[in-house]
Specification:
The complex is a heterodimer of chains A (338) and B (684). Chain A has 338 residues and is of the alpha+beta class. Chain A has helices at residues 2-22, 25-36, 41-48, 57-83, 108-122, 136-139, 172-180, 221-236, 289-294, 311-319, 326-329, 332-335; strands at 126-127, 133-135, 164-166, 185-194, 206-216, 242-249, 252-261, 278-287, 303-310. The mean pLDDT of chain A is 91. Chain B has five domains: 2-73, Phenylalanyl-tRNA Synthetase, Chain B, domain 1, CATH 3.30.56.10; 94-286, Phenylalanyl-tRNA Synthetase, Chain B, domain 3; 293-357, Phenylalanyl-tRNA Synthetase, Chain B, domain 1 (2-Layer Sandwich); 378-579, 2-Layer Sandwich (BirA Bifunctional Protein, domain 2); 595-682, 2-Layer Sandwich (Alpha-Beta Plaits), CATH 3.30.70.380. Chain B is of the alpha+beta class and 684 residues long. The model of chain B is unreliable at 491-497 (pLDDT under 50). The longest helix of chain B has 19 residues, at 660-678. The termini of chain B are far apart. Chain B is elongated and about 130 Å long. The chains are: A alpha+beta (338), B alpha+beta (684). At the A-B interface, helix 5, strand 1, strand 2, strand 4 and helix 8 of A face helix 6, helix 9, helix 11, helix 12 and strand 19 of B.
């Protein structure tokens, strides 16, 4: 009898599986009536129990109940499954975009300053800074620009009082450093400068400059060219060409305006370089003996060079930005591009 | 930088160079006279726009540029003819220079019987090409010679001068003059004037007076050509706001010899184009002057330039530029400086001249530098670390203007510096203060982003504020870190101020921890116009003000027209740099595991986490390692006026694994303490 029961269980489970696979409610109902119904096969076995010997009865009774429990459970599950709409196994859609905690950025001008600092740091230049609100002396007199000197016209300046102003150039830091420190000196000084220029796409009353200064016995104009070449080729790419032409700054002599081959057209001429193939990127020169005298250096012993560049201009060239005002609006659609 | 306009053909009159206009532009540019523009004129000539640096007033005339071209191309210079006929009459006017310091040379010529009329077409066209308006023949000639020699001239109507006298003197208080352009100037002794016997008739070096100007009926003229002290002219021009072609040149210095040459040239042209008869004599009052001689040491030149130029090459270049080698002593040249090169006064000026003509691009580039290494400064290291963290936490860095509007709120951030520094000459009225906080500008940036379709932003600025100090000329420039924080819209359905507040507090704590700052932080209430008093606080580090933070105050949100309420913070960055400890030291990892126990208690609203924490620490438990807050709850199951706080305690022994019973008993002790001291009820 036990054997017959086990066979019945096997058969019942197969029928249940088949009903489920066909998703046939009819077959399922048929299964219920056949096995679990009041007149079903299992009930039939139960009704036969009294005919068994007292030794056999408990084991068979237990088995019948177990099978009944199992089939009832299977039936309930199958019934629920048929009532549910058919579910497709969940798949990972690998084409969905990834999730990332939102990240921010440094300001493009800060990144530009950082990149430039890194290049000069590798050549031994130390990063220093100086005050933005400055004594007139440091912005002018000490830089060989005496009062009433016409070259002051080249440096329109915001004044706080008669002798206090917002520095219009980072060259002020040269003087402050040389007053405190003995040669040899290699510094670069990034920072804000201010000039009362009406704001437009090319002008801003506040912008950033990086000043460089190297003073050492025997440093000459050739070294100035060398250091700036290394800078330009590192920052703008190894194919960058550079040229120097005479200019005038009161605090350097000889003074130079430095141009690089256009970063966009590689020197062929385009709208960025005005068709010339060349772009002005910085001013430079040998430190004027009067500047050395102002800080108590002996101009016969030491020579040196200085250079200054506008950070906004360089960033605009590097990234192709066409309006300087974007740097100070802080629109995250802009800031997130760098 | 001054843009000088000349024409190609005009230049060609004085120097027969063999260059196309494109080659000419390149040659001039490479010598420091940048040709910034070139365009054709209707009569087949070309206008060149040349940038002249402020040290080269001699090049503010066609002849000056011709001299440069002659030197650069080794072509001969051809100066215009200066000779003119003279008549029988003499100059009747007496000239007295009372201030020879301010007027080193004054010349006057008199031309009788001129006929004022329009200039010939060629003259009018040239003037128009270089941007000057033709007026009448005599005035046009003075302007023409100005553009030729860079020497300003002025013609007076001789008959309008009172008393046949010219006096170069300081103006007297109370005197007035109306200049040709109609400006009425109140004079004082700081102003140098040209006067006749009765009154000032010209502002020296700036502009002539209306009363004595040449007009249609003028018959006799007095032609002034002079040199005035640059600073005097500069101050006069500035005082009356009269920047003229004249003043610009006098400010930069005119050629002592050119004074006379230009006068003769103009006289010759006047006789030719306006007729009349020149007086047979002329007046020339001036100081004696000698040609400057400057020494040039060849070794010095080569040390500065990194070249090995020989004496011949140097002498050749200087000679082409009209310098005169007076003497050669071993390695030294004694160089005579032509009078038109007022900018050359010392050796370095000659070095530059040699380098300029030799060509900067011919100087060898030298990349052999000695090794010098400098460590990064503490400031840089801290800045880099903080920028990295803030970017990782989703903040974009802003850079905003240091000059702000002068409203109350722009002054009060972490630091209240009282009256801000103000700019005397602001670009815009009212926008004249140096900021004392970064927060106002961050709110403005938030507003701009809101208007541009980005409703939620996280911004920071790491920059200076300017705090005036009583009795000191320069302010303290303090670097501050400003934060503006909002949760992104997609991540949190409904942002509550409380969460943002705790996030910003967490950011500050995170920065301190990342910078290894271990000092004692004290958080306290704060009153600040930017912040909502209920959700804000101030932090002190070892007693020093470190930061303020909080939700933007309602009034601020309204004032900046914001559609969401950001959380703000301002942190003293200099203090962070000072206290940072960027070294890391290894601690051995614990050998035995920790046991955690969670506790949830209900306490009165007034009980703070700080009290709970100190109560737990005060229980004197040996193996207490860490207390971690993890939940604050109000609502169902917690009576009104109370709150539920949950936290986790870590116990650990250094030398063995703790038993469960030890942790349970420690938890019991803590609960007892909390119940006793803070009236806490444990939630099960």
């Amino acid at each position: 009898m036990k054997q017959a029961l086990l066979e019945l269980r096997e058969k019942a489970l197969q029928e249940l599986k088949s009903a489920l696979e066909k998703r046939s409610a009819e077959e399922l109902e048929h299964f219920r009536v056949k096995y679990l119904g009041r007149k079903g096969l299992l009930s039939e076995y139960l009704s036969k129990l009294p005919t068994l010997s007292p030794e056999e009865r408990p084991a068979i009774g237990k088995l019948v109940n177990e099978i009944k429990g199992e089939l009832t459970g299977g039936f309930e599950e199958a019934k629920a499954s048929l009532e549910r709409p058919k579910v497709v196994a969940p798949l990972t859609d690998i084409s969905l975009p990834g999730c990332l905690p939102s990240i921010g950025r440094s300001h493009p001008l800060v990144q530009t300053i950082q990149d430039i600092k890194d290049i000069f740091a590798r050549m031994g230049f130390q990063v220093v800074s100086g005050p933005e609100v400055e004594l007139e002396y440091f912005n002018f007199e000490s830089l060989n620009i005496p009062p009433d000197h016409p070259s002051r016209d080249d440096f329109d300046t915001f004044y706080i009082s008669d002798d206090v102003l917002l520095r219009s150039q980072t060259s002020t830091v040269q003087i402050r450093v040389m007053q405190k420190q003995k040669a040899p000196i290699r510094i670069i000084a990034p920072g804000k400068v201010f000039r009362p220029d009406t704001v437009d796409a090319r002008h801003s009353f506040m912008f950033h400059q990086i000043e460089g200064l190297m003073v050492e016995e025997g440093v000459n104009f050739g070294h100035l060219k060398g250091v700036l070449h290394i800078f330009a080729q590192t920052y703008f790419g190894p194919d960058t060409r550079m040229r120097f032409r005479p200019s005038f700054f009161p605090f350097t002599e000889p003074s130079a305006e430095v141009e690089i081959s256009c970063t966009l057209c590689k020197g062929h001429g385009c709208s960025v370089c005005g068709g010339s193939g060349w772009i002005e990127i910085l001013g430079a020169g040998m430190v004027h003996p009067n500047v050395f005298k102002a800080v108590g250096y002996d101009p016969e012993q030491y020579t040196g060079f200085a250079f200054g560049m506008g950070v906004e201009r360089i960033a605009m060239l590097k990234y192709g930005i066409d309006d300087i005002r974007l740097f100070f609006e802080n629109d995250v659609r802009f800031l997130s591009q760098f | 930088m001054f843009i000088m306009k000349i024409t190609y053909n005009w230049l060609k009159e004085y120097c027969d160079f063999g260059l196309t206009r494109k080659e000419l532009a390149e040659t001039l540019t490479s010598a420091g006279m940048v040709v910034a523009g070139m365009r054709a004129t209707p009569d087949g000539d070309y206008i060149l726009e040349i940038e002249i640096t402020s040290n080269r007033p001699d090049c503010l005339g066609v002849i000056g540029i011709a001299r440069e071209v002659a030197a650069l191309t080794r072509s001969p210079l051809k100066l215009p003819p200066l000779e003119h006929a003279t008549g029988k009459k003499t100059v009747e006017v007496k000239v007295a220079v009372e201030e020879p310091e301010l007027c080193p040379r004054y010349t006057a010529r008199v031309i009788y019987g001129v006929k004022i009329g329009t200039s010939p077409l060629w003259l009018q066209e040239r003037l128009e090409a270089v941007g000057l308006r033709p007026i009448n023949n005599v005035v046009d000639i003075t302007n023409y010679v100005l553009m030729e020699w860079s020497q300003p001239l002025h013609a007076f109507d001789l008959d309008k001068l009172t008393g046949e006298e010219i006096i170069v003197r300081r103006a007297m208080a109370g005197e007035r003059i109306e200049t040709i352009d109609g400006t009425k100037c109140d004079l004082n002794p700081e102003v140098l004037v040209i006067a006749d016997a009765a009154r000032p008739v010209a502002l020296a070096g700036v502009m002539g007076g209306k009363d004595t100007e040449v007009h249609e009926g003028t018959c006799n003229i007095l032609l002034e050509s002079a040199k005035f002290k640059p600073a005097t002219v500069r101050r006069t021009a500035k005082r009356f706001g009269l920047k003229t072609e004249s003043s610009y040149r006098f400010e930069r210095g005119v050629d002592m010899e050119g004074v006379e040459l230009a006068s003769r040239r103009a006289t010759a042209l006047i006789l030719q184009l306006a007729g009349g008869e020149a007086a047979k004599d002329s007046i020339d009052v001036g100081m004696k002057w000698n040609k400057k001689v400057v020494s040039l040491r060849l070794p010095r030149l080569n040390v500065i330039l990194g070249t090995s130029l020989k004496e011949e090459a140097v002498g050749d270049i200087l000679g082409r530029l009209a310098f005169e080698i007076k003497e050669k002593k071993e390695d030294r040249l004694e160089v005579g400086v032509p009078s038109f090169r007022g900018d050359v006064t010392e050796e370095i000026d000659l070095v530059e001249e040699v380098a300029r003509i030799y060509g900067y691009n011919n100087i060898p580039t030298n990349t052999s530098l000695s090794i010098q290494v400098n460590p990064k400064s503490r400031q840089e290291l801290v800045e880099e670390r903080v920028r990295g963290l803030l970017a990782g936490w989703g903040f974009f860095e802003a850079i905003t203007y240091s000059i702000v509007e002068s409203n109350e709120v722009s002054r009060i951030g972490l630091f209240s510096g009282g009256e801000p520094l103000r700019i005397r000459n602001p670009l815009r009225v009212g926008e004249d203060c140096l900021r004392q906080t970064l927060l106002g500008n961050l709110l403005k940036a938030k507003r701009l982003n809101q208007d541009h379709g980005t409703p939620r932003v996280k911004l920071y600025e790491l920059s200076k504020v300017y705090l005036p100090v009583e009795g000191q000329k320069l302010p303290i420039e303090k670097t501050c870190l400003g934060l503006l924080y909002e949760e992104g819209l997609s991540l949190v359905k409904e942002q509550t101020a409380k969460e943002a507040f705790y996030t910003v507090k967490g950011i500050i704590e995170g920065l301190l921890s990342a910078l290894g700052i271990k000092g004692n932080i004290h958080w306290e209430a704060v009153e600040n116009p930017f912040l909502d008093s209920a959700h804000s606080c101030k932090a002190r580090l070892e007693g020093e003000p470190l930061a303020i933070l909080g939700e933007a105050a309602e009034g601020i949100v309204r004032a900046y027209d914001l559609r969401s309420v950001p959380c703000l913070a301002e942190i003293d960055f200099d203090l962070l740099v000072e206290k940072a400890d960027l070294t890391s030291t290894f601690r051995k990892l614990p050998l035995y595991p920790a046991i955690d126990r969670d506790i949830a208690i209900v306490v009165d609203e007034g009980v703070t986490w700080a009290q709970i924490e100190s109560c737990v620490r005060g229980a004197g438990l040996e193996f207490l390692e860490k207390i971690e807050f993890f939940d604050l709850y109000r609502g169902k199951q917690v009576p009104p006026g109370k709150k539920s706080i949950a936290f986790r305690i870590h116990f650990r022994a250094p030398d063995r694994t703790l038993r469960k019973e030890e942790a349970d008993s420690a938890r019991g002790i803590i609960i007892n303490e909390l119940t006793k001291k803070l009236g806490a009820v444990v939630r099960q």
